[in-house]
Amino acid sequence: MSESNDLRVAVLGVGAMGADHVARITSRISGARVVVVNDYLTEKADEVAAGIDDCRTVADPLDAIADAEVDAIVLATPGTTHEKQLLACLEHRKPVLCEKPLTTDVSTSLNIARREAELGRALIQVGFMRRFDEEYMQLKALLDAGELGRPLVMHCVHRNAAVPSYFDSTLIVKDSLVHEVDVTRFLFEEEIASVQIIAPSSNPVAPQGVVDPQIAILRTASGKHVDVELFVTTGVGYEVRTELVGERGSAMIGLDVGLVRTATPGIRGGRITPGFRERFGRAYDIEIQRWVDAVRSGINVDGPTAWDGYAAAAVCAAGVESLESGLPVDVQLADL
Ligand code: ISE
User: Fold this and answer.
1) Nearest CA to ligand 1 atom 3
2) CA–CA separation, 170 vs 106, rounded Å?
3) Same-domain status, 119 and 136
4) Which residue in 70, 112, 175, 230 is deepest, having the highest Cβ count within 10 Å?
């Protein structure tokens, strides 16, 4: 660590999410500073670095990881590059907060989780930020306090106004549903045993061939039922709701009720949060602050682990298989 005792962080990938993390480390959280940035678009990296005191760009992500003046890494690069970069973090024993996905397929995710386990030292945290959201934390506390009795069913809605043009039907599972997969494992503390994806009539506005909306049905190992409406081309706003039904009542989060006003002619309403960066902004702040604190204290991980990243990948792989057949598919989980 530096003389000032701040954690010296390299942020790899400074597109939308990475640039957000640079801003929060620089101005919203304590105990860390960004000393290195990297992006395959070098002008973008230069532009971000120029806005931060004592920050430089490093052209090769693997050099940035190995850099002697870097204590820890935030990985916000495309998922396809994660495997190589995570292996380098493990090799150099550098703690890393890796934006989801851990890697883009199940076998490489398992390989990463196993390599970390062999080192006998936790180094990888996966960026499932919903675990740090105030409302999800309240839901978890309610559940853990037994206030709802035994949880039985969960209903979720996950709607995006729009998604990038490269989004296909499988990404709706691997990039969007993956959050409800992690939320299910987080809240219920058990594995998901099977997944079924049902395709209703597609939204005419969805790109040709993209199955949207999708209904996912998850069944946990003990038999709990979770259904998720995924709809990523609504054109409306960001809507993420979760209703948990237990033996002694239910609880709902994500109503997004801010100011409600009335206006002529006979209208009542408010604003819908536009996107996930706004909706989960505070959760990202808490996530990164807790990660920085964990790394500085030597624990390195305070949140979803490499195993959580692997388990989510395994559930999504079963989901992608079900997308083709429409039938429930069992999730195959290996041992570490
Ligand atoms: C995006 O990558 C996210 O992680 C968002 O939270 C999710 O709502 C969106 O569907 C994904 O594309």
Assistant:
1) 176
2) 14
3) no
4) 112
Calculate how far, in angstroms, residue 157's C-alpha sits from the geometric centre of ligand 1: 13
Evaluated on CA atoms 248, 254, 258, 264, the torsion sign reads negative
Phi-psi group of 187: left, alpha or beta (phi > 0 → left; psi -120 to 50 → alpha; rest → beta): alpha
Task: Tell me the average confidence (pLDDT) per consecutive run of 10 residues in the chain, 336 residues long.
Answer: 81 96 98 98 97 97 98 97 98 98 97 98 98 98 98 98 96 98 98 98 96 98 98 98 98 97 96 97 98 98 98 98 97 96
Separation CA 274–CA 238 (nearest Å): 5
CB of 284 sitting under 6 A from ligand 1: no
Which ligand 1 atom is at minimum distance from the Cα of 172?
10
61 and 135 housed in the same domain = no
Same domain, yes or no: 157 and 287: no
Ligand 1 atom closest to the Cα of residue 158 is 8
Q: Are residues 151 and 71 in the same domain?
A: no
Overall number of domains in the chain:
2
Which domain does 225 fall in, by range? Answer: 131-274+314-330
Is residue 170 situated within a structural domain?
yes
Whether 336 is covered by a domain: the verdict is no
From ligand 1's centre to the CA of 184, what distance in Å? 16
Contact 71, 300 (CB under 8 A): no
C-alpha to C-alpha distance for 250 and 243, rounded to whole angstroms: 7
